[in-house]
Amino acid sequence: MSEIFIPGINSRFNTDQLVQDLMRLERIPRDRAERNVERLEDHRAFWQEIGRRTNSLRDSARHLFSFQNPFNDRIVFSSDSSVISGTAIRGALEQERSFTIRQIAQADRFLSSPLETDFRVEGGTFTFSVGEEEISFEFRGGSLGDFTEALNRRGGDLLRASQITVRPGTTSLLIESRVTGEENRLNFSGAAITLGEQIGMASRVNDSRVDFSSGVVSVNAGSSSRIPMNFQAPATGDWVLRFETSTNLRPEQPWVVPQPPPGPSIPETGAISHGGIVIQNDSSTVQLPVWTPPQPPARVDNMSVLSVTFSDGTSAQLSPIADSPGFSAHEFNLGELAQGRAIVSMNLVNDNTHRDIQIQNVQIFDPNLLGGIRALNPVSTAQDAIISMEGIEIRRPGNEIDDLLPGVTITARRASDTPVTLQVEPDREAVKDAIISFVGNYNRLMAEINILTRNDTRLVDELTFLTNDERAEALERLGALAGNSTLMHMRNTLMRITSNPFPTSDGRELALLSQIGIGTDVRWGGAASGGGIDVSRLRGYLEIDERVLDNAIATRLTAVRELFGSDTTGNRLVDTGVAFDVDALTGPFTQTGGILSATTGSINTRIAQENRRIENMDRQLAQREIDLRRQYAQMEDAFRRMEQMTNSLDRFQQQNNR
Asked: What are the φ and ψ backbone dihedral angles of 454, each rounded to 5 degrees?
């Protein structure tokens, strides 16, 4: 029995294979175009990577000479950061100052006596004040926790309350001001003072302040003044003597040399006459001493002008004041100063030759007895920060002071009698990091150019910082753009820039990158070290000798900055330097519409053209395959009909034979 062949389902002549073989030949131009697209896409990726590397190099180069360059960054070093620290803005003056922290600024913090956990606060209008700011609210009554939450909701940035378990089974209420400074004292009124007395936090007192001066007392240079006081210092308490002083410096007057004295006035000696003859006496003479002009008076600068006198006749010199055109405050612990003696007067003896001194607001008070209440359990008392800067006393309400040194914010952290030095210096670490980043980006771009333009596996082996995956990818890119003139020009120009001399304020002593420890062979000495020529160091990569770089940054920072970018015309615009020239070179490559953009744009155009060709060929190939399958189907159908006719003839012949 013969096989049954159905056209389109099976084929007597293996039509599918014949069509596939023919279409494989037809697809050769299409496959070639597809491989060309893949090659172009690879090239586009190579150029995009070059673009990223070039952008990174340009950014790091611009960072070294732009307005935000690290050479203007400042950092503050403290000899004891636990006492005082600081921060500085860009461009702050380099300087060194010595500080002594007499006391840090604090806020009032009042603690109650231990209370039962079920203690309830009666309702009322509770009013608290911090300095001139006031907080007032109605409380209907409730637990201590309810009152704490109500106070915190309204306290904002001024006031805060919390519950502390001082003893097991009890709780204490802590109310604290959130604003430091002597003028920002915490005070109670209304139901608040009643609650304070009830819970053992505060009591009502009269103000302890005693004033000893009315108005300003002026003491000109060379004069003195006495302020009567007659105050018996209490044996207990934290009583304070406080006053404010200011100074006025007189302008220097040129010394006028006095003329010699004229000497005594001698009367005429007279004459006699006789017989018409007149005889005149000789004039009297006085032998005057040789005139020696007096020396100009010595300039006197004495800031220790204040003292206090006690009832026993003794006196104590107060700490020196400081020059200040405005009034600055001074405080002294009365217990340490008087030691139980009564103070009779304060004396100001101004023996300066060119300085007038004013004093005002001379007061004695107990800081715990101000404002009408006395804290019974003060955790801390509102006070100003008192800082001595090289003998000049400064008071501020807060511990962060930004108006003392221009561009510098200092923070007082704790009191200490030991002077602490603050140094405002360039941030040399930031400069070093920026230079290292520049060199790193330079080397990555140089490595990418070398890999793409040369077909030498040693180029990849020399890059020891590559990971295994990066090394495999680099081997695939090796020599992909061999002979490209654009990349070769960029490479050669970069090598020339980094080896060229540039003008700096140190002249020839610092004009090359190699003189700050950056070059192609700075760590090993090249052939001069006896090791011969290292081919890998001829690729254009830069090395860093950190010892030399650190020394250059530490001792020649200005010249290092000028080496990377400087102004030679005086118009305050950088016009030369390593970083400036690198930026000028890479700018045309990376800018919008630049070389790299144009190159990738051209590749994109070619890829689009090839893709359109592929689409056209795909349509033609699809139609060609349809035509072939139809032609083979027609052939098989004709063969089938011929075979059927042959079989019919065979049967007819067999019938005739019978």
From this structure: -135, 145
Q: Can you tell me which residue has the tokens 């590749």?
A: 603
Residue 249, token pair as written in the block: 């410096």
Which residues lie closer than 8 Å to 476 by C-beta, 6 or more apart? none
CA distance 325 to 323: 7
Measure the CA–CA gap between 151 and 162, rounded to whole angstroms. Answer: 10
Mean pLDDT of 231-235: 75
Cβ-based neighbours of 328, under 8 Å, separated by 6 or more: 244, 245, 246, 321, 322, 393, 394, 395
CA torsion angle 508 513 519 523 (round to 10): 70
Separation of alpha carbons 418 and 84, rounded Å: 11
Per residue in 254-302, pLDDT tens? 878 777 777 777 777 777 777 778 777 777 777 777 878 888 888 889 9
Neighbours of 427 (CB within 10 A): 18
Region class of 85: left (phi > 0), else alpha (psi between -120 and 50), else beta = beta
Contact between 62 and 378 under an 8 Å Cβ cutoff? The reply is no
Beta pairing partners, 88: 408
34-38, 70-74, 292-296, 588-592: least confident range: 292-296
Q: Which phi-psi region, left, alpha or beta, contains residue 371 (left: φ > 0; alpha: ψ -120 to 50)?
A: left
> Please, which pLDDT band fits residue 542 given cuts at 50, 70 and 90?
very high
Q: Report how far residue 589's alpha carbon sits from residue 439's, in angstroms, rounded to the nearest whole number.
A: 19
One-letter amino acid of 207: D
Tally: H helices and E strands in the chain: 13, 33
User: Confidence class of residue 235 from pLDDT cuts 50, 70 and 90?
Assistant: low
Q: Tens digits of per-residue pLDDT, 201-232?
A: 988 876 677 888 778 999 999 999 999 988 88
Question: Strands (DSSP E) along 178-300, which ranges?
Answer: 186-190, 202-204, 210-211, 217-219, 224-232, 240-249, 271-274, 277-280
- Three state DSSP letters for 63-98: HCCCCCCHHHCEEEEECCCCCEEEEECCCCCCEEEE
Is residue 500 within 8 A of residue 511, CB to CB? The reply is no
123-180 pLDDT, tens digit each: 999 999 998 899 999 999 999 999 999 999 999 999 999 999 888 889 999 999 999 9
The DSSP annotation for 535-601 comes to GGGGS---EE-HHHHHHHHHH-HHHHHHHH-B-SSSSS---BSHHHHHHHHHHHHHSTTSHHHHHHH
Task: Identify the CA nearest to 346 among candidates 319, 313, 315.
Answer: 315
**Angle 262-263-269 (CA atoms, 0-180°, nearest 5)?**
120
Specify whether the CB–CB gap between 100 and 388 falls below 8 A: yes
**Structural contact between residues 28 and 36, judged by C-beta atoms closer than 8 angstroms:** no
Place of tokens 């390593």: 578
| CA dihedral of residues 608, 613, 619, 620 (deg, nearest 10) | 180
- Report residue 443 as tokens: 């080397």
Are the CB atoms for 293 and 258 separated by under 8 Å?
yes
